[in-house]
Amino acid sequence: MSTNSLLLFVLAFLHLSGLYTKTSGAFSIEEATIDDLQLAFKQNQLTSRQLVAFYLKRIRRLNPLLKGVIEVNPDAIFLADKADRERKANTPGSSVGLHGIPILLKDNIATKDKLNTTAGSYALLGSVVPRDAGVVVKLRKAGAIILGKASLSEWANFRTNGAPSGFCGRSGQGKNPYVLSATPCGSSSGSGISVAANLAAVSLGSETDGSILCPSSYNSVVGIKPTVGLTSRAGVIPITPRQDTVGPMCRTVSDAVYVLDAIVGFDSNDVATREASKYIPHGGYRQFLHPLGLKGKRLGIVRDPFYNFGNDKGSVLIKQTFEHHFQTLRREGAVLIDNLQISDVDTITNGQSGESLAILLEFKPALNKYLKQLVASPVRSLADVIAFNKKFSKLEKTKEYGQVLFEQSEFLSRNVSKVDAILKKLVSNFKKLSKNGLEKLIKKNKLDALVAPSTSAVTSVLAIGQYPGISVPAGYNSEGVPFGICFGGLKGSEPKLIEIAYGFETATKVRKPPTFKP
């Protein structure tokens, strides 16, 4: 029996026997929601120390196979004890929300502690950040326990076109916990893998184009890609500030909303948060967790190109599943407007909008700005990173995948004149495509949201428009690989999207724990 086969057998035995899903009492941590955990805290069935110890033990057992976590916080138990003391003393805020709840952060989100922030690359190992990322400041204020750093597609999938999703130099290839041979998708692969496999209560990912929605889909978790600027990107290793956004990846919509409530809001270190703060509803987002949230909602379906599935058996099953979900949406009171068209959608989805060029032009200055503000770092510029990768290719374990995107970004910055003028023209085109496309479609048809498969090209439509989207588990293909359904809308439409997503989740209850199939 191979090592992997033996490990799978042991995991299956432990799972079936329940040996690692229980605390000392009757409470089961595995698959528990934030509400479940807070109730267990209140009823003295669980402590934060026990909860953290459970996840650390599970990481030790499962992570050698899944590689969803790069490193764990050596202070996690200390932080858990602190949370328990605060709860015992009835410290204000110690009995609600994220207080005492362990969270994993994608390894491009800075923490000013004993954890590294490296984007999965050895080039940043040992670098020292000046401060916590803006979202981490808010998480700590809410009482969350930073459990560790989740793996990712190295450099948020912007080092090269050649590497598989979920691969990074520091941790290796992340595995889909449902079907180990399937892609976990990226770039927030580790965040999706870890939450799906119960290596943490909740997690944070980031998205430039598809990096929350796609791994959420493939790992059967809920992912919220917020309106750009709704959450701070300060202290997050950038791709492009124009499209980057940070959002939760969790097992349920309610958990994702708990996290979203904790991390949204103004941050003086991210200018985009000032404008986007106007979208935050008074009283937060939890008020929109309505079981009947679908009632009266107008949902648009753009079949071409988002539902252009193949004719093989697996694709037919997925198509049938979505048709069934359409019936469910109608039964729950939603109004579906079918066979809609987005103006110039092919320009966006076929890569002809200029999105890739714009990101290549924006990447170098954004990364250089991040690297220069580090207290200490082996690299201070994109050119340094490229040189590091060439010098230490064996250490990086990524020689075979190269760094073509890095090299293209560096080349363009040095050899293209009038970069600012080109970017201005490209961004103007994105605004035009978005205004005449999704914005016009939604306003003309009085839609509350667009509905599409989470892994479809809808991610690019949302990306260039800086629009939000929520992915919810929708099913499993013939091999057991998960897929999700995405609800997308215009800037600031998170309240409606949450109502729709929660209503869909309540009506369908699709998600099930991973199976670790070979």
From TrEMBL:
Presence of keyword Signal: yes
Signal peptide start-end: 1-25
Residues covered by the Amidase domain: 51-456
Gene3D superfamilies (UniProt xref): Amidase signature (AS) domain
Pfam short name (any one): Amidase
Keywords: Signal
Name this protein carries in UniProt: Amidase domain-containing protein
